[in-house]
Amino acid sequence: MEVLIYEDYNEMSKQSADMVIKVVNEKPGALLCIAAGNTPTGTLRYLVEEEKHGKVDFSNCKFVGLDEWVGMDRDDEGSCQHYLYSEFFNPLTIKQENIYFFDAKAEDLVEECKTIDTFLEEHGPIDVCILGLGMNGHLGLNEPGTPFNLKSHIVDLDNTTKTVGQKYFNETTELSQGITLGCQHFLNAQLVMLQVNGTKKSEVIKKLMEKEISTELPGTVLKQHANSLLLLDKEAASKL
């Protein structure tokens, strides 16, 4: 895992966007997976602007969802899909047929996992996977203790995730389960970009760099990925 430290969040976001643009310009039909959350917002906004200026074209790309809160969809403010449609898909008018997300309201969530796994078997591997790192070290919703060899699966949320996740909602919202791609999908991806910013994440970054690969800190799995990048601003890197 290569570590790249940038002066600030803005610079990290811009450089991340440039990396995505390079991949898409080389492979216009690339398969992309993008985390929802505060960290990738800067990158997505750069990408939207760059397409508007003709620097990149996402119209032939396919997009697979990383994760979702069980019981929510794109109409629920605070959901992962709502975020990505608001920040990226709608501004760029991405065709619906190019977007593949878990239906986290489905009656049979196990079947949803199988559907996404089949899609990735047929269209994968993921060309660029942009991930964030949870306060407890999770990737997607792969919580501490989750085996690294899992593909798509349903997960009972860690208490840390339930608490931190409230920031995405206007009022207290019950969060109990998630549905997520597994770490095996990340290991299969061509390029993984783990973005982390802010002093609040400096302690978990310190642990990530010091610990051996362990399911106790899911982010450590990327140390065994041949082409993974850890992109930090100086605040997140402050305890290294």
Explain the overall architecture.
This protein has 240 residues and is of the alpha/beta class. Helices cover 32% and strands 18% of the residues. It has seven helices and ten strands. The protein has helices at residues 9-26, 41-52, 80-89, 109-123, 159-164, 183-188, 202-210; strands at residues 2-6, 31-34, 62-64, 67-69, 99-100, 128-132, 153-156, 177-180, 191-196, 228-233. α1 packs across α2 (41-52). The chain starts with a strand and ends in a 7-residue tail after the last strand.
Please give a handful of descriptors for the protein shown.
240 residues; Rossmann fold; seven-stranded parallel beta sheet; 10 strands; globular
Q: What global shape is seen?
A: globular
Strand arrangement within the widest β-sheet reads 1-10-9-6-2-3-5
Number of distinct helices: 7
Q: What percent of residues adopt helix (DSSP H or I)?
A: 25-40%
> What sequence of helices (H) and strands (E) makes up the elements?
EHEHEEHEHEEHEHEHE
The first-level CATH class is given as Alpha Beta
Strand content: 15-25%
Question: What's the oligomerization state?
Answer: single chain
Count of domains: 1
Our Rg estimate from Cα atoms comes to 17 Å
**SS content category:** alpha/beta
Please count the beta strands (DSSP E, at least 2 residues each): 10
Q: Low-confidence spans: pLDDT under 50, at least 5 residues?
A: none
